[in-house]
Amino acid sequence: MTKIHDMKISSIKTFYLVTVFSLVSLSTHAAEREELLIQYASQSEQKFSEERGKLLWEKSVKGEAPFTQRSCSSCHTRNVTINGKHIRTNKEIKALAPSVNSESLNEAKNIEKWFSRNCKWTFGRKCSSQEKGDILTYLQNQ
Fold this sequence. Notes:
The protein is mainly α. The protein has five helices and four strands. The radius of gyration is 20 Å and the shape is globular.
């Protein structure tokens, strides 16, 4: 066989290996998200609702000055398929919709960390498992 032919075969093998590992990685992350949803469901009374998640996402809550009105969409925008910007720091926030940001909602520990921080800042309290499940259902379907 020629050297060029061997290089083409090697490139094709590499492409397939990278593709397979990427798919395995994505399915592993999706599995973590699904396990988290199962955990939330075991602590909730209702089936998760994309509609309730959207309402929570856009719900305006009275906050402390200078951000007297806040919501999830204050920083992340109503359209979760585009980047947002933190209203206090002006730091860019990547889009949360997994359909446009493959790094979003991948790891259970990061999802929990951000729920903890953002629920406290936005709503002034921890979010319930029901609320987390509704919001996560909304986000993953965008």
